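Retro notes
What went well: the complex prediction finally ran end to end.
Inputs used:
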Amino acid sequence: AQSVTQLGSHVSVSEGALVLLRCNYSSSVPPYLFWYVQYPNQGLQLLLKYTSAATLVKGINGFEAEFKKSETSFHLTKPSAHMSDAAEYFCAVSDPSGGYQKVTFGTGTKLQVIP
Amino acid sequence: EPEVTQTPSHQVTQMGQEVILRCVPISNHLYFYWYRQILGQKVEFLVSFYNNEISEKSEIFDDQFSVERPDGSNFTLKIRSTKLEDSAMYFCASSGSREGQETQYFGPGTRLLVL
């Protein structure tokens, strides 16, 4: 079964500092990977997705993620954190069992941005 | 931009009562999903629905749950006899296909509290 593991349930960065949120995947087939963001009291918004076209994927709000097969990783980065980036971030994988009908989420990483 | 909407945003109910959570998927989408997120835990897949049938469901989706598309726009999740452990945020999602790289678009969620 497909799964993702997010390292670090809480990450704190200073405003202007690099954001690095870690995600490792486990998949028996080439995976489709996603990062979603959840702002307080809101739903899940897609940040970016990897669909095998390019290993470096750019998303909204200045975020990007790099797919590294050798490391089974899909870490999310942003060069300079803004206060508005404070949210919970979920790495997810599209599960091919049953025909890609479900997305399996990681446990989430809460990002705190310190002024 | 088209979006998934959900009503109500919050619902409080007594244990044993029936609740219906409503969703309006993106209009040209054909695949519909329900997920839930118990407070502090990760987002979990409940069920997928296509062509007026359940196409996949998780072990969480037992006989007390049902889904329906009563008309051309709404997609509902019914919990027949709520339990305390059903308290969670319930997210509806929709997608245009079930290809692995297809994005599932999520609604803002309904926060259900069972007393």
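What we learned: The CA atoms of residues 73 and 106 of chain B lie 16 Å apart.
What to try next: split runs per interface for comparison.
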